Amino acid sequence: MIDLKKYGIEMWPEEKIQAFRLALLHWYDQEKRDLPWRENTDPYRIWVSEIMLQQTRVDTVIPYFHRFLKTFPTIQDLAAAEEEILLKTWEGLGYYSRVRNMQTAAQTLVEEYQGRFPETIEEIRKLKGIGPYTAGAIASIAFNLPEPAVDGNVMRVLARLFEVNLDIGNPTNRKVFQAMMEVLIDPQRPGDFNQALMDLGSDIEAPVNPRPEESPVKEFSAAYLHGTTDKYPIKAPKKKPVPIYLKAFILQNQEGKFLLEKNDHSKLLAGFWHFPLLEVEEEPEVDLFHPILEVSEAVDARTRLEADYPFTIEWEEYQFPQVKHVFSHRKWHIDIQLGQVKGTPELPDGSLWLSAEEFSSYPLARPQQKIWEMFLSQKTDGF
Questions:
Q1: Cβ burial, residue 267 (10 Å; 0-12/13-18/19+)
Q2: 254-272 tens-digit pLDDT
Q3: How much of the chain, in percent, has pLDDT values that exceed 90?
Q4: For residue 350, pLDDT beyond 50
Q5: Torsion of the alpha carbons at 113, 43, 88 and 328, rounded to the nearest 10
Q6: What gap in Å lies between CA 316 and CA 250, rounded to an integer?
Q7: How far apart are CA 221 and CA 212, in angstroms?
Q8: Which of 14, 15, 39, 50 is catalytic?
Q9: 314: which strand partners?
Q10: Which of 299, 335, 305 is nearest to 320 (CA)?
């Protein structure tokens, strides 16, 4: 058991904890968000929603949740899903390892648990891609076990309630907030208690523009009472993502179809289809009022491409605006190269000529969608 006093945290006496639970749950009963995964306590639905909600806003998740459950209504359906259908269903949500881990876990559930979720926190945590937070959410909401579900929203609320002087972005500090929640959680309604704190942290106690004066538990909040809400939670600034510079090649054949490759090599966006991409050295910003390609870089990238595709290509000397896409730890800067392929050359395995109408049948990650959107916007402008 962690000694919370060591971290300067003085927990409330039992009478105050019970009053806090009562106030929070009363508010939740009146104000809880109407969310599709709260219609019942099916652990599969809760699991899908919690994985989707990692790094993703609720309003973005809702249509994906409906589509995912329609495509894979059961654990067995998810376990047996074909990769391209799985990725297509997740397309646009990002962090694709989430859905790959979900399928691996679903296969484990089918093989070892007859397609049913285990009902202990220890067994739930053994499943691929399920960490302490997701395990706590499933255990408490689906099985009414008094297990904390500590995410960023919950840590923010706790940091303000007790003026916790710990960096919530430091993973080693999570155990402290976990220990606090083990004291506070309502043993009779643990799932509702966890969800109440999530709702409170996502709205009234939001990271930006909080409204602590509207909090149903403001009389319990040290930060509200001391006027220090703006100080908490403590969080060190994120490191800037590493810049990566790429050339994307939009190659069109004489039938009007486009060349796409399947990513079977890189772990990032593995299994997705994309326009040929090559990493290059950093280039200076291009003046779009003088749309002339950087000849040396362009020729070098084209030469490298032609080593993989010995096509006869007529290159369009047009400078597209740069496409940018931010991942968690890197930022892609993508320059588009447009070319017309002559003849009907054969393609190596893992490449296809696709019409624009066929794109909807293949999973395309968000960077590729941005490239295509840029191409269409410039084409409309008459390049």
A1: exposed
A2: 999 999 999 887 778 888 9
A3: 75
A4: yes
A5: -110
A6: 10
A7: 9
A8: 50
A9: 340
A10: 335
